[in-house]
Design brief:
Length: 456
């Protein structure tokens, strides 16, 4: 019988029960549910609301139930509705009437809000750990490619040469903000709604601060309606996951491009590539594509939770049960994707020689020539125009920038001297960068050292 059935003349319709049941999802929070219940009972004992005899029997039985669940002995029967009912029913099975005191001064409304926060606290720590592992993997590759020159792009058109390490460190830096977002979310997740009861608090002399302290939480969410009514922190965490996934998806997209024959830059290890059932020659970057594709789930979860919450009157509404589907989906997908992104990168070799020669004299060095004229006191806009005309000449005559003679250069500006040809290699272009955070070897080395220290 359901926990709430005594006021009804009929039992709940089977189909309606099945539709309401959430055990398949919240069953995954059984540890959190038991931890929360234990703190609650300890508080009830301290406040003399429950005797220490009864309380201790409950504490012991709860630990036994934990083992029964983890060993698979206690089966999840969906007819028990949710994890809270399942555990409470089992408790009463085991210790009889004494078990019926567990839910004193508590509602499933504050109970589920607490379970969820304990779950988020654990998973935020896991997400931070996995993000840092991926950052370290990026950094390791960066270390190996301090001298590898690649083309940098804007609009996926060649823009300026870069050190590949610089490109990889850009992701390290983005992911650092993801870690910050997670840590920031932790501050708000790790607060206790327990003791809000259904919505109004309780007439019994509970100690909310004590349970919060027992659970290692920062503080109590004081307003009892707020404590049970909001899911903003769930939204925040899924939002942080969505941003991580967006970053992983961009990285994955680049892996797909780099491993194409057209780029011929990345060689994914066979153990992380797939073939085709029809075309024998194929080697496909499915893992990168799947990370890119799984973003859909997390964005979907974010949109779902925002929609679920948008019009709910205070305080608890059953709609909110749907939140955990999306929270767990987003967290699991993000964790799996972080692991795979890191493994994929670890198992990829990049061709150090792929771009450098090809980029020597390439039109992507045009900006270096603009800066050359600027150093010779030509106003920037004028210099841009001159180099634009030179580029047009190169395009028309199918030449690289180093394919023109100094005499030809001088027709565009008398400021050009022989020394321009020294500028027309991709390596010089990179080396000549001066500004903070640029792609020069010295700046990239500084960035490498900075992140190495930070991620130690
Ligand atoms: N399974 C419910 C949930 O996840 C627990 C709270 C139920 N509370 C209620 N008043 N029906 O939200």
């Amino acid at each position: 019988m359901a926990l709430w059935n005594s006021r009804f003349k009929k039992s709940f319709d089977k189909g309606a029960l099945k539709f309401s049941a959430s055990l398949d999802v919240d069953g995954k929070l059984y540890n959190e549910d038991i931890d929360g219940s234990k703190a609650h009972v300890k508080m009830l004992m301290k406040q003399k609301i429950v005797s220490s005899n009864d309380g201790n029997a409950i504490l012991k039985a709860l630990e036994e139930i934990r083992k029964e669940i983890s060993s698979g002995k206690l089966k999840f029967d969906w007819q028990k509705e949710d994890i809270h009912s399942l555990i409470e029913e089992r408790l009463v099975d085991k210790i009889g009437e004494r078990g019926k005191r567990l839910h004193t001064a508590r509602s499933r409304n504050d109970q589920v809000a607490l379970d969820e926060r304990l779950y988020m606290r654990k998973e935020i720590a896991n997400l931070v750990k996995l993000t840092k592992i991926f950052q370290r993997t990026l950094l390791k590759q960066a270390q190996q490619h301090k001298d590898t020159i690649v083309s940098g792009y804007t609009h996926l058109q060649r823009a300026q040469p870069l050190l590949f390490a610089h490109h990889l460190i850009a992701y390290v830096s983005m992911l650092d903000r993801d870690v910050e977002r997670l840590n920031d979310c932790m501050k708000r997740a790790n607060n206790s709604p327990l003791g809000a009861a259904a919505l109004a608090g309780t007439t019994l002399p509970i100690d909310r601060e004590y349970t919060a302290k027992l659970l290692g939480m920062n503080s109590v969410i004081v307003n009892s309606l707020d404590a049970v009514a909001d899911r903003d922190v769930v939204i925040e965490l899924i939002g942080a996951c969505a941003t991580i996934m967006m970053h992983l998806s961009r990285f994955s997209e680049e892996m797909v491009l780099w491993s194409s024959q057209e780029f011929s830059f990345a060689n994914i290890d066979d153990s992380f590539a797939t073939g085709s059932s029809l075309m024998p020659q194929k080697k496909n970057p499915d893992i990168a594509e799947l990370i890119r594709g799984k973003v859909g789930r997390v964005y979907g979860s974010l949109f779902a939770i925002l929609t679920i919450m948008k019009s709910l009157p205070l305080a608890y509404n059953r709609d909110m049960q749907e939140d955990k589907v999306h929270l767990l989906e987003a967290v699991d997908t993000t964790k799996d994707s972080l692991i795979m992104a890191s493994e994929l990168l670890k198992n990829t070799k990049f061709d150090k020689k792929r771009f450098e020669k090809e980029l020597d004299g390439d039109l992507l060095l045009a900006t270096d020539l603009v800066d050359y004229l600027v150093r010779k006191q030509v106003p920037f806009r004028k210099a841009h125009e001159i180099i634009g005309e030179i580029v047009a000449t190169c395009v028309d005559s199918n030449k690289k920038l180093n394919g023109l003679t100094i005499a030809q250069y001088k027709q565009f500006s008398t400021k050009f001297e022989e020394d321009i040809f020294k500028l027309l290699t991709s390596r010089t272009s990179v080396k000549n960068k001066l500004s903070l955070g640029s792609t020069s070897p010295a700046e990239v080395e500084k960035q490498l050292q900075f992140w190495k220290k930070k991620l130690k």
